[in-house]
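pasting for the record
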Amino acid sequence: MTKNLPKISLITPTLNQSKFIKQTIISVLSQKYPNLEYIVIDGGSTDDTVKILKSFGNKLKWISEKDKGQSSAINKGLKIATGEMLGYLNSDDYLEKNALWKVSEYFSDNKDAYWLTGKCRIVDQKGKEVRKFITIYKNIFLKYLRFKPIFYIIQFISQPATFWRKDVVKKIGVFDESLYYSMDYEYWLRIWKTYKLHFLNDYLACYRIHSFSKTVTNPKGQFDEEYSVVSRYTRNPLIGLLHRFHIKLALFVYQLLKRRN
C-alpha cells in the first residue's frame, strides 16, 4: 500500500520555538502517513529545540546550523526533499487530523493539480481557535472567489494548508530569500502564473498567532512587503489602489483586535 501512495516531503523551518515545535512535530507524525519524509531545518536554536528534535530519533530528518533566515531554511529543505508532493509547516503551526491523507488522495485523484490549498484555522498560544470571522472571510474567497486578479488584492491562501508537486519547484524555482514576511505570497503568485489553483474544501492546518510572532509584532511591515510583491506582478493602478485599501482595512481590524486583547 505504501508503494502506491505518493511520497510527501514536509519541511519545518524553525529558530528558538521550543515552546511550540513539539506539538508541530507530533501533529505531523501522528498523521501516520506511511510515505512521509519530514525535514526540520533549525537555524541554530539556543533553547531546547535540538533536545526536542533528538527525542524523536529517526522519525524525522533534521539539521541545526546558522542560516540566512526562514526562506533560506525552507529552500535548504526543498533542495534535499525527495517527495513527489511538498509543503512547509512553521514550527508554531500544526496540521489537522488526516490532513496528509486528504492531500495525498486529492493529488492522486487529480493528476492535473500541481498545487492545492485548503482551509486553515487561526489559533492562539494555547491552541484555542480565534479570529473566526477572518477565517470565514478567507474561506468565502477560497470557495467562491478563487481568482488570480482578486488574489492580487487579498491574500486568501493560508500557507500551512498549501501543498504542491515537486515539478513546480523544477519549473519556477525556490523561495525568494530577500523576503522576510511574504515569501509564501510571492511564491503563490509565481506558481499561479503557470498552474491553476486547486482547492480542497476541508480544514488541513492551524495557524498560530502569539505575541512574539513576526506578523503580530509588525503587521504594517508585513503588508508593506506584500504590496511590493504585488507590484512585481501587476502594474494595474486600480489593483494597486485596491490592495492598499485592503491593507488599511486589515490594519484597522488588527488595531481593534489588539485593543480587545
